[in-house]
Amino acid sequence: MRQPLSAPQPPAGRPTGAGPRTAARGRLRAGRLPVCLAAGVLLAVAGCGDGNSRTPTVSSAAPSGTGGTTATGTAASPTTSASSVPGSATRPTASSGAATGTTRPSSCVDRTVNAMSQAQRVGQLFMTSVSTTGMTTAEAAAIRQGKTGSVFLKVHTNAGTAAVRSVANRARALTSPVKGVTVGMLVATDQEGGLVQVLNGPGFSVIPSAARQGTSAPATLQKDAETWGRQLRAAGVTMNLAPVADTVPPALVNVNAPIGKLSREYGTDPATVASHSTAFLRGMARAGVVATAKHFPGLGRVTGNTDTTAGVVDGVTTSTDPFLQPFKSAIDAGVPFVMVSSATYARIDPSRQAVFSPVVLRTLLRGSLGFKGVIISDDLGQAVAVADRTPARRALDFFAAGGNVLLTVQPADIGPMTSAVLARLPQDAALRRNVDDSVRRVLTAKQNAGLLTCG
Question: Band of the pLDDT at 85, cuts 50, 70, 90?
């Protein structure tokens, strides 16, 4: 999803000698979160310590590469463990008896789910938008009505840290309270760099484009990303809908509308994209910001932009494609969120767009690549690629496919979307299972990020 640029950013695009770039509309993403550690693994344990936020421990060694490529074309596991990334976690298990027959106490996630109303559980699965220029009445109403658990800061601003923090605090104040626990709100934005940098002004660096970032050493990029992440935290932003893990082949850079034309790619080969996108997300992790790898399974081989074009099809990418390597690298590094694209992948699931495809989400992302975190959609509000479905149908189809958090920049969509899910739940056992699975994944990510505590 992209937003119109309010003003062009200073030139920070691709290295000298690259083709021309067209000014276009920005794109969503963001995040920060402290972590509760137990035996070196992020766990959903009751109370999550004393409830105070803590900076996660991350290996200081930046990646020097991707660790090689397997026979299927995916990256070998990097050295940094999943526990080092804010919000990363394995999905919580139910409170069952141990092998000895004893009963474990209920986890904080269990307690929270049980204390929530059905509307609150469903609300955790939605991210609505809030304007950086000031939250509107309609935006506030959508948060209250939908009891949404996450917001996206949209519209490029040059107002600086203090102004952004004020907007973030106003949104957070609308969080639906849950008795006996504290459930925080994820506040996200798109802070990739270059043309896709929503937050600017005093307190924010001018971040170079991903194409330019890709010319730095991974260790340097990781350190820079940590600085940019700390700036987000200072502004009250806890989630970054970045990095872009899409690889654009050299021949398509100048015609690839969603990525190449905007200099959003870290390179033109999967190994470079993997090493640098992973360095970026690790830097965000060190700053306590929740990162999001996007746009699975990749938008680098298309020409149309799903935000503005219907029927975008990738006819090349397969389920064992080398271009999946950056996503595998991100998953191995513990990225807590993966954003799925709205294009159709003819050689993976020719009959459905990725965002509505259980083959893409369950079989490939969950199964083959082993992702255990939260699957978030690209914008399902204004995007032309999904305009053939009503808002209600988009929500039902996304969750049926295995999605966990639905992002819409249209506050007016929240009512019909959440109402459709709530109305369908009583007669749809599969949807009930999907909602329960999704809310637990979201709450686990929040707990590991310090946004969920139990007293």
Answer: low
Q: Tokens in use for 119?
A: 């509307």
Number of Cβ atoms within 10 Å of the Cβ of 58? 23
pLDDT of residue 62: 41
pTM here is: 0.82
Peptide bond into 276 cis (omega under 30): no
**Binning pLDDT at 50, 70 and 90, where does residue 455 land?**
confident
pLDDT higher for 29 or 9?
9
Whether 54 shows a pLDDT value over 50: the answer reads no
pLDDT at 234: 98
Percent of the chain with pLDDT over 70: 77
